Amino acid sequence: MALLLHRIGRFAYRRAWLVIVTWVLALGALLGAGLGLGGQLQDSFAIPGTESQTAIDQLAAVFPQTAGASAKAVVEAPEGGTVESADARAAIEDMEAELEDVDGVASVLGPFDEYAGDQISGDERTAYIQITFDGQVTDVTPEMLDAVTATGAIGKDAGLEVAFGGDVFQETSFGLTITEVFGVLFAAVVLIITFGSLLSAGMPLLTALVGVGAASGGILIVASFATVSSTAPMLAVMIGLAVGIDYALFILSRHRNQLARGQDPEDSAAEAVATAGGAVVFAGLTVIIALLGLLVVGIPFLSVMGVGAAFAVLIAVIGAVTLLPALLGVFGKRLAPKPGSRAHRRANAADDGGKPTMGRRWVDLVLKAPVVFVVLVVGLLGAAAIPAASLDLNLPNNAGTPGSTQREAYEMIESGFGPGYNGPLIVTVDITQTTDIFDDLDAIGAQLGELDDVAYVGEGLPNETVDTAIIQVVPESAPDTPETKALVEEIRELAPSIEEEFGTAIAVTGYTAVAIDISNRLADALIPFALIVVGLSIVLLLMVFRSVFVPIKAALGFLLSAFGAIGVTVAIFQWGWFAELLHVEPGPILSFLPILLMAVLFGLAMDYEVFLVSGMREEYVKTKEPRTSIVHGFQHAARVVTAAALIMFFVFFAFVPEGSGVIKGIAFALAIGVAFDAFLVRMTLVPAAMALAGKAAWWLPAWLAKRLPDVDIEGEGLRTHLEQEEWAAARPAAINVDDAVFGLAERPIGPLSVEVPAGGVLVVRGEAVERRVVAATLAGRLAPVSGRVAVEGTPLPTGQGRVMRHVAMAEVAANAPTGTTVGELITARLDATRPWYRLGVSATQVRDWTERAARALATGAPANPAAPGAPARAAAPRFDVDTPLASLGAEARTVVAVAAALAERPRLVVLDLDDDPSGASAELWSALAAIVPVSVTLIVGLGSSASTPDASPELAARGIRTLEPVSRSLEAHR
Fold this sequence. Notes:
Helix content: 55-70%
Low-confidence stretches: 863-875
Strand content: 5-15%
Radius of gyration: 38 Å
Largest sheet: 5 strands, antiparallel
Shape: elongated
Oligomer: single chain
Number of helices: 32
């Protein structure tokens, strides 16, 4: 991955304006399409598979009158008045009449109608009109809502206070307030302090804002075709802004340090993208995987939120490794810290010399008493997690935002009727098996009314086909209280006895029941999801750090910070600590907050872990001194990790004071989680625990080390590749081999050394296995064991892909398949390697290479007849595309195989001849000299007794080199 990122970084640096223009066009296209399509955000809390959702779906089919979107027009008489007065009653009835005439309204049920329920409060000051629309919330247009709210003027003219509530009035727009802007300003201040440069500080902000804009446009496009909640864009903006700044910060910090040490700007940008960018890609992928893990919970609205946030993180990662290096290319050396500046001195300071940095002083303090700091951190986070034991989950209660008409209606209903009237339950009754419908419904209603926390039970209302009825049950408690949850469970526990007594199946539904079912499912999924996230972190960190202790310590630290953040969130948002200070209304915790927190915080925690511990590992690999490695690795990464954590904290926390009710709790939990994880876990607990573990921190079983892939997050493989590339560039040749060992570690071949000029010939002589292993390695099909190997200036094994594209293998069939022709062989090779944009193989090209092979054989045939007494030689064979391969001799089949390989337009051709000495004749070498262009290098595998290519003056003139590989085991046997 490091090599790929290095190439991406170098390309973006060199083609800076092309990359920047591409980003501008992509941003404009996404935002333009998103705004132009006019997608609407909508909060749909459907949850397939639950009792409440199944009942809703059934009502939509058999009782469509109750399935449409609903609203309430709440009226309240002045102090001392009643809605029963003549003027108030007339105004309410006039409002009903006007509402019935509004397009899209299916039915209106007023408080004075014959079938009205408990729609007038006990003190007769408050009443409400129930409004049902034809379609769902998504079908209700702003014009319909304007027409509905316009009827309120009738009540207000009569001296009544009027407000409108219901799910159709829920605020689903999103936007940034001044406090979120302050968060970005705080992030800018941190960046300026970190870099000491306005120009450098502006780059992470620019890339993050571009990424957030692109992600928002993409989400709005999706909203035009699917249901997207109003929380999804805000969550994507919040997370995308935070990680976008941080990811760019990591890469830019590495780049500036390298510039301060005198590195070339282009090389520095490519290396920064390959090393720090590798950690960014790793961290971004962990966040994306964790967010996409929300799909397994099976809740659609949560899945959309996870996918939207994951998309924002993906854009942030792409921006960090493409747009940022393009900006680095535009500004070049101007980003280098000035000599003598603090940034320049820090970059060039010795690890153990000069004035110690704050990070060095902190890690020295921690390592003086690591046990004490481990106990303090675990104790503090454990205490913070205690409130999490009383976690109460629920969805938003449809109260609306303060000052909205929805909030006014909610509060008027609560004060006039009681809190339960804001979240009535709907009990569906299957009446297909009863003959005494109304008596049975009354009896069922009576049993429901005897349950605890029931304020009102409405009359049973059958549908037109008399197969389903509904009973409204109003709790005494608010929709988001534990008492209402208990009531839902009691009704469900009552269902079997009712079915047994009356033969009628019942189910509980309504917004409140759906919210309870969602909360229950999320609560049940919390622990399994946490285990999945922890398991993923252990596997990923095993690959990155090749250590058992580091992943386990990182996972336990993540759990400490996550549950500590949940505990503090419960204390403030549920218990009400400091609620007024933070403009928080105490109540249940948002049901999807804990699982969302774990998904996001997991990736951020692994981000900090990688940047801190990778430096420690790099030092340990060099010195094998655990304590010194911890100190040096920490002091190099502490400043950038501190800046990244502060930026995350400020960006997240800025959404708390004035953020929407849903996003407020998420932002607070993320801000606290980042603070806990970065400053307590990663920068305190990690060095203390690593010091206590000593060398055991880097232990890995040998059997596991063999099976784990090498991720190379620190770029060690890249540095080796660049060194070998520099070595190869200093020795221009087609093939460079320097003390290289081929084969397998347990059966090595070599060491071997050779240098073959472009267009030359390399003869590999020896046993079939050894020579074929060497040839396959030079062709990029196998990796060398050790030493240095370069083909066409590309080092192996890191450049295997590029080498394979430049080398063609000429496969000579000892026994050609019956019926296969010369043309078919060449066509098959061309078809296997043709570009994707070519529909087929050109017949002219096949015929051309066939004719070249025939001419080459004619050139290699003897010009004069055989000498007297010598056996007669066969004339050069004549063949075309339709000639069967089986009819050709060994030499002809070899030349045809080389022609088929050359049709791929390679720079090198590999050919292995059988051990039969007669297979490598002088005529064959002459034919190969004729068909192989002088620009193509030829690698030939020969048996020890076969004639060599120097039999052809043309090949000898190109330069012939010889390798004689022998495996060490065979050599020892000899």
